[in-house]
Amino acid sequence: MEKIITKTKSQSVRFHDIIVQIQTVIFNDIECLCLEDVQRRFPSVTVLCIDNVQLSFLRDMNGNQLIPLRIEAIKDQIIEAIVPIEKSNDEIYTFFDRIDTKMQDMNKKTDIILANTQETLVRIKHVMTQMYELHEYTTPRYFFILPVKHHNWTSINTVQNLFLLHYKLYFLCECSNEPDKLHIAPHDGYSIKKPNEFIANYGSYLRTTLNIARSLFSIGSFVIPQSENVSTVVVNTLPSFIKESNNYTDINNKLDLVEKMLNQTNNEISHVDSSMIRKTVLPETSLQGAQLRELEAFLELVDNKHSLGNLYRTITNDGHVRWVCLEHYHTMSFHNKMSEYIHQLETFGGKFNQETKEVILTGTLTTKNITMFCNALTKGFTILTLVLQNCSFNTKDLDKLFDVIINRSSIQRLVIMTVEVYKWMKISKYVCNNMIVYFKNQSLKVQFCNHHQNEDTKILIQLLQQNKICRTFNFFGYDLLIQDQDLLHCLKGNKELTTLIINHFMNIEFLNEIITSNCSPTRIKLSYCFNLSSTLFSLCQALGQNENLIDLDIIDQTCINDKGATIELLNVLRKHKSIKHVHLHVFNVQPSNQNENCLIISLLNDSFISHLRISESIISHQFIEALVHASKERHSLTYLEFYNSQLNEDDISILQLLYTNESLTHLLISKQQYISVAITEIRQQLVNEFSQYQNTRLEQKIAQSYIHSSICLDNMDLIDQDMEIIVKQAIIIKQCNFISLQFNKFTSIGISILADALNNNNTLETLYLGNNYISDDGIYFLANILSINNHTLKILVLQKNRITDRGVKYLAQMIKVNQTLIWLYLGQNEISDEGVRILTQTIQNQNHTIEMLVLSGNKLLTDLSIDYLIQMIQHNQSLKKLWIDDCNLSELGKERLNKIQQTKKDFYISL
């Protein structure tokens, strides 16, 4: 925007024999004479001169003439105003006739374009109304696809080749009733799995939404959102291709390719005029909510957040659902009826926080209260969080509330804190102490924050029974009771839930019951569950009896103590009748070893491996050839990652070519260990999702302790998010020398946070972490930090944490260099004779500080460990006590250890 200042200065101008003074104007600190000001006195003037030299009008940096046309004023000189050399009257008349004819033609074309644009917008609006009134609105309705890269239509020979291209799906924000006010959602798009199946399901619908996208593109809202509702924040988060200034032709070509593809796959040819869209935008067949619900199954959800397009469900005044970006979510929540809904809420003791959009309900809630609240939720009462705190409900009223919350409201989080449910005459049925439920798109995620009781399961079951739209059930394995038969029965009979996501799984029997049931889910994702080969072997047995599973995702495993379990899994998958897509993480692939041989067979002959992650391996060229075949020839492998693995440069080039040619849609080669990358990403996700997380009970408990004191936080059902509080309050501020965190729910994520806090810590001497879910991954972070920076910690308790021989390797590396640790508790883990060999040889030869070692309760420990233990006892001078009771030792083995105890003075063994 130019800065314009008008002052009373003037410029002398001569036209023929007349000299006049014309006022000048300041543009960007330059005094200028504007041509249009001269023409007001002398209309025929087109040129300004000095001494018969024609003056050029000022131009910008790109050489374009500035508007209005102007020259820099010249003080104390007279500028000549010149008219062009006149043409004959006949020439002038002919010239103006031509201009008039062209203007008439342009006006006609403009009228046609405007009329066509309006007609298109009217038709789009009609389609939007039909879509808007869908009774099932579980997923954003407006989406279209584009190829990721530009392709010439002539280079694509067959329909089959069209399906081999890499496509991405993009959503539109439903922020307006007017189609020209929509904008693309703030997300970089989702890669489409199996484009042929996707087009078969959504081809007709895509023809409609593609025309909506093309119309937005033609009027400018698509590339550069024109709506006054679209802020800079939204524009900055739009897909990268939208922000490129030279993308008009590229996007138009991609839209053309998709349209041709849709037409050709449907055996129809339609002509699209470049200046106007004549083709109808009405769909051949309407898409029902049931089909929309399956959309997510075709998308690569790289964020795993189930937040399609970063859009949020909101309810309008007339009870309809819209999916909008976060900014429009906040904008649309402010409407005339909100004050009325808030007033209704306050009449029965409810509280509403305008900033956080949180509602808190307390006390006894009557049928009238619940009915009033539910009506408000379905008519546009926009809230993000509902807290039920110290409430009591009739069970029927709770059913009604759950139904509205899940299926017909904008609520994204439900917090239950001591809710009593009664049946009739206020006779208590059960009490739920603490549970949080997250709703996002079609995902329902549950987390219990206190000790999980049977009553908590009952309210979860009641919640699941009211679900009509959520397809994904996401929960933490440590929240399952050993005998959760009621929940098991509910999940086995629930037909709405088609996807099961379990994190940190413990109860394999529970999962196997679900997998082998008649109503088993079609998609299962298991994260951080298989550090034991026995668990994976058990899963293999269940898969052999399953006939419904389509997608199996176990790619987010950090390591499997293999022992042939991966090979068994691949053999089972090859025989499975229904599984189409497997996301797999394989460790220790070496030239010609069993893992490599079995993988090569599957890659060459089967099509179920679509996503493959390889870690801690040496990659042969033969294995690369199998990967190329699976990706380029079978078109099955589309996603490939390598972590901490050895590949030569030629093989890397081959893989990069697969990515360039779009046989692979994702390729990553990292020198880091996967666990380091994964935990970093998860911690960032926790920060984003739980930025306002609090645990008042924990904070109060720590506040009661003194500086440099001991603190016991056992049995508080603490979770990974709580570790940030512990680090800040107990380690940094209170500088505690003794911390006990036993019998909680900490995983490797929480331990990684703790490990960071131990960097250069010089106060903590005793750390109890027993009976958590740390696993080998948590030991990795703990051992790393104790190897480098800690010189204070003396006692470390790690019993019952699912630690295997891999975790023992990390600890053995640590005690080679750590000269402070004196007591190490490793009881009730999954340590075998191999782990004992590694640990005892390290203590025997490379450690001089360990005084007490506890290995009690490791059932995999047998008489094969006796010789290793004896050698350690005989040669290490610092070790004074060894607990090895409740293992799998024979009486003869125990007797041998007893004898060695008698030969060493002041040494104690517990058998």
From TrEMBL:
InterPro entries: Leu-rich_rpt, LRR_dom_sf. It holds the Pfam family LRR_6. This is Uncharacterized protein. Transmembrane segments: none annotated. PANTHER family: C-TERMINAL OF ROC (COR) DOMAIN-CONTAINING PROTEIN, PROTEIN TORNADO 1. It comes from the Eukaryota.
